[in-house]
Amino acid sequence: MIFADQVLFRGSVYSGVEDDLKSLFNVAVSRGYRVIGPKLVNSVIRLEQLNDFNEIPYGYGDKQAPGYYRVVNNGGRFRHGPDSPKRFLYPPELLLFIIRPDLSVEYPRFEFYKTAFFGIKPCDLAAINVMDGVQGELGDEYYRKVRENLLLIVENCVEPGDTCFCATMGTGPFAFKGFDVAYTRVGSGVVIFQPGSDLGVDILSELSLRPAEDEQVDFLRNLMLDASKKARAEFTLENLPETLEMGLDSEVYRKIAERCFGCANCNMVCPTCFCFDVIDEPELDGSAKRIRIWDGCHSYSYAQVAGGHFRKSLYARYRHWVLHKFVYWIRQFGTFGCVGCGRCITWCPAGIDLRQVVRDVVKEVETRCRR
Amino acid sequence: MQEVVRTPMVPVRAEIVKIVPETPDTKTFYFRVQGGLVEAPKPGQFTEVYVPGVGEAPVSICGLEDGILVQTVRSVGALTDYLFKMREGDLVGIRGPYGKGWPIEKLAGKDVLIVAGGIGLAPLRGVILEVERNRGKYGKLTILYGARTPSLLLYRYEFDRYREIPNTEFLLTVDHPDETWRYHVGVVTELIPMARIDVERTIALVCGPEIMMRFTVKALEQIGFKENQIYFSLERRMKCGIGLCGHCQVGPYFVCRHGPVFPYWLIKKYFWVDEI
User: What angle (nearest 5°) sits at the alpha carbon of residue A340, between those of residues A338 and A341?
Assistant: First the structure.
């Protein structure tokens, strides 16, 4: 759990204005970073390469709810869209190698850029840390090469969205660790900056800021407390893995399966889901490209083998996803697999709310235990 | 500047040097892997077999003979169908061996009970050959093997050899006998009470369809086997073979990396939950 005091007094807090954000952007560019940040594309806020600070759609807001996403030009604040840093660190499609009929192999070459994520949210920062746990263990070389040269500039969330539950997962709405620079747009054109690493101090020192006033710090603390009250689910992390494991046979999963399409949208928008398939793309000369593509545990074929199927029922595939995120992940990689970003809720075509699913399973187990 | 990105999921060239038809839908392939395997395979481990332009599938290792990898394959899907059309001299890719095999070191001084169903004998063949090779190291060997019909039994040409291993009991059963069948008729668990098993000193190794393994575990527990005396090999979709791709998870375990051979006690909690 993150406490406001820990965040604010851990590092120094500086005050600036919105133009300083632009300067921060330009410092990153001048240092040779490819800057990836929020950009309005076809009425959706995507993460894209930005050439100019003004491409960031400040002034646009969004409305997110289970199965609902709309961008609105209302002078409000937008949250994270469907993209997460995963798209860049662990691409949806990656050529692994080309193999010829004589089984000789050619490895691909890729251009690796120093990459700055500008304005990603604390949940996505946390997701990078979760992915580090997975890929650190498993050691994907592409991931490592992108990860080595990342600059992480995080925008704290003053107004979490209606599908957010980062405060419950302990990952937000304010960045706590693992970032280079964090900033908060506190309103009236004022921006509060905090360095989170040596690189962050170095980069911030190129700006011209001033120490935040005591009143500003107090104001920031109140924003933080208010925001973290919003970004909550109706369950807590206390004994959560143990409780969920006592509910392996919960009826809740079967009820959800009546609405779930098994489309795996949730897997695709999840900033930590790492499962992949490898497919062959045959070429006319007899060689084949072996390509890694994202796969998701909700897909029908996920646990299917030739001549059998180990998770044919949709409820079992949904259950596996929940248990992996909140139970197995801890045993495998030492963290929860969920960061509470809520993308799986927003982008679920059936509007299934993961927060309610977890809450309901916990309730069912607790009721059973009291009997 | 461009950089080369490598992956551990790269197959090594292997030549098919011999193909032995086993049953109407299984064949045993003998692969000569160029440069040899990275490590000597242990019974119960598996490899990923790659057919160029088609794909990869996990196949259990049935033996290593003079450096030649022996793997029995059942034709059940696109990849194995294609593999069945290949001939001696054709090239495939092999990577591995992967996973944890049978607990050979724990079998020393113990009686060994093998319960296999259908193609489930394939990953256990290596254990039988190991007992034959180092006969003095192990106690009594009991092999209980069942299939749906006599024609679906693997390695029939070796059965006499298994019977000749000293201190070995070899019982067979089928669900549907033909007119020549001289052995038991029924499911493989029916052989358990017929065999002379000294439960106290026995380790059971089980492999077959999941439903057969569940009944076998129940039958073994009924005659007094403890959870730490039973091992089985699980089948799952082991796409990458090295714990990266996620497909083969059973509870928190990656079958490809933490298994495919598991001690029963380790996954008891998940073993009985349907579609976990």
Answer: 110
Residue A145 touches partner B, C-beta closer than 8 Å: yes
A285 touches chain B (CB under 8 A): no
Query: Are residues B28 and B114 both part of a single domain?
Result: no
Domain membership of residue B48 (yes or no) is: yes
In angstroms, the CA A292 to CA B66 distance is 35
Across the strands, what pairs with B93? B13, B50
**Separation in Å, CA of B140 to nearest CA in chain A:** 34
Tell me the average pLDDT across B109-133: 98
Domain count, chain B: 2
State both tokens at A360. Answer: 């309901």
The span from the CA of A134 to the CA of A210, in Å, is 39
**Contact predicate B153/B23, CB 8 Å:** yes
Instruction: Name the strand (E) or helix (H) holding A261.
Output: none
At A150-203, the pLDDT tens digits run: 999 999 999 999 999 999 999 999 998 999 999 999 999 999 999 999 999 999
Range(s) of the domain holding residue B58: 12-97
- A212 touches B at CB < 8 Å: no
Check if A75 contacts B (Cβ < 8 Å). no
Among candidate residues B97, B122, B144, the one where a domain is terminated: B97
Closest CB from B74, B77, B275 relative to A312: B275
Q: Which of these three, B63, B97, B131, is where a domain ends?
A: B97
pLDDT average, residue stretch A34-45: 98
Say if residue B162 is in the same domain as residue B62.
no
User: DSSP class of residue B188?
Assistant: G
The residue among A163, A151, A126 whose CA lies nearest residue A201 is A151
Question: Which of A145, A249, A312 lies at the smallest CB-CB distance from B3?
Answer: A145
Strand partners, A35: A116
Choose the mutation target among A246, A278, A289, A304 for the interface with B, i.e. most B CBs under 10 Å. A278
